[in-house]
Design a protein that fits this description.
single chain; GMP Synthetase, Chain A, domain 3; 103 residues; three-stranded mixed sheet; alpha+beta; 30% helix
């Protein structure tokens, strides 16, 4: 499987994870800052949340990890949660902005 296809499959898995308070997936919300497939099929995800006080932080991070680990080629996934830079609605996809009435 080509690297680009692996990356697309990882992104599709991440798009299955929704913020419980907002009916949009975490990828289109702009919560995923970086996602890399490293040697030995390890996946590194750098992500944030809409707020440092998000009560669902553990649930969302765990679900991203679980979804990525479901892929047959993934050996392990590491999620790093960051607050720098802080999330802003400008990180959202156009589709997400439209769904929330920002466009």
């Amino acid at each position: 499987m080509e690297q680009a296809e692996k990356e697309n499959r990882v992104i599709e898995q991440i798009k299955l994870v929704y913020d419980p308070e907002i009916p949009i997936n975490v990828y289109d919300l702009g919560l995923i800052y970086d996602c890399q497939i490293l040697p030995e099929n390890r996946v590194e995800v750098l992500m944030t949340l809409t707020s440092p006080s998000c009560s669902m932080a553990g649930v969302i991070v765990d679900e991203v990890k679980q979804r990525v680990n479901e892929l047959d080629f993934v050996e392990d996934t590491n999620i790093e949660l960051t607050w720098d830079p802080p999330w802003d609605k400008i990180l959202m996809s156009d589709e997400a902005l439209l769904l929330l009435g920002f466009l």
